Amino acid sequence: MQTSTLILALLVLTGIAYQLGRARSLRVAGGARGARKLHSLPSYYGLLTAIWCGLPALVVVLGWQALEDRIIAGQVIQSMGGSVQELAPGELSLVLNDVRNVVAGNVKPDAVMPEIAVAALRWQRLDGLSRTSAAVLALCVALAGGWITLLRIKPTMRARNRVEQIVRVALMGCSLIAILTTIGIVLSVLYESLQFFRFVPVTEFIFGTQWSPQLAIRADQVGSSGAFGAVPLFAGTLLISFIAMAVAVPVGLFSAIYLAEYASRGFRAVTKPLLEVLAGIPTVVYGFFAALTVAPLLRGVGERLGLEVASESALAAGLVMGIMIIPFVSSLADDMITAVPQALRDGSYGLGATRSETIRKVVLPAALPGIVGGVLLAVSRAIGETMIVVMAAGLSANLTANPLEAVTTVTVQIVTLLVGDQEFDSPKTLAAFALGLMLFLVTLLLNVIALKVVRRYREQYE
Predict the structure, then answer these.
(1) What's the CA gap between 3 and 135, in Å, rounded?
(2) 50: domain range?
(3) Residues paired with residue 211 on neighbouring β-strands, in sequence order
(4) Where does 312-381 show beta strands of DSSP type E?
(5) How many CB atoms lie within 10 A of CB 346?
(6) Are residues 143 and 248 in the same domain?
(7) Model-level pTM?
(8) Predicted pLDDT at 222
């Protein structure tokens, strides 16, 4: 039985269990008129029965899926003889990959060695047996769980408390998954970064001004040692992000103020969706726009003014990135401004303040925590953007503050370092994790600063 069919069957059983549990609760209470004797509503008894019918079976299915491939691979390897079992892990992985390709139909059995074809047939038999066993076991567990719960239903059973407890545990599990995922990401990046710092000193990485991570594949090649000073990458990231924020924050904030305080309802209903459409445009489209339109335009204007503008410049990437970020600032700022209580505005008008004075002295300070959050989100988006920088700013790690020159950013270099012919444990590849760790620390610092600002103004205006 296919997994999708099994899941559908379990859903049907769960629905039936809900109806049976609800009917059983009414029956033990003496009918609908005796429902008041029940501790909980009949629907809670149905939910409890459905949960104990479907949840254990789902755990069985997921656990079986997680272990099935490993168990079948072990049985197939044992059937192929000692010569295969003595292979190195990499060679053994290639043999299993050939077997999987034959099983999936990507390779014909007559196109591989006879041992591989025989192993593929055994894999198919074991896979069919495994699917059947999983289906039988899951259905038996579902029926047993539902039946036991039905037998235990009685008027004094605290079904609502048990359902709420299960839901609480599920919510805690989801929160724990998010926390563990974050911890896992941080630890993995930190571990690989420590491996990188075994080859390159931390001081050279943080304070070095030369970035040339090219390493020779063989010892006799030229350029066997690279330079891993990340200051040019940090400078390029800050330069492009500063240009982007110089465009996005004023335009986004002013547009939010106009839409929230001055625009008519009809104009707002049309303009705000059109403005938010910018957030749905793929970044590669912005990259094409920056490379094919904005960059040549800036170069032409620079030539008329006697300025030398590079074909790929930080200014072009920053301007287009700022346009892309405008909806983030505008939408969040608009929501925060409209969320300010009308009583604050009325009180300001009652004291004789004008509309502009009310906005400057009352509305904006009250909405500042949300506006800071929107700006922080925009900064994070600007720091993490890759495609626009690749297409409009280039890959040159130049240490410069001139926006008319080509620069690169941390995220662009991470992509470049992970796409190449170097070994995974080489300093060139591990440098990507060190750059990722620095991005994480910068984002964490921005969050801490934003939280302090929000806390300060929230205490003042609430």
Answers:
(1) 8
(2) 3-157
(3) 228
(4) none
(5) 11
(6) no
(7) 0.70
(8) 45
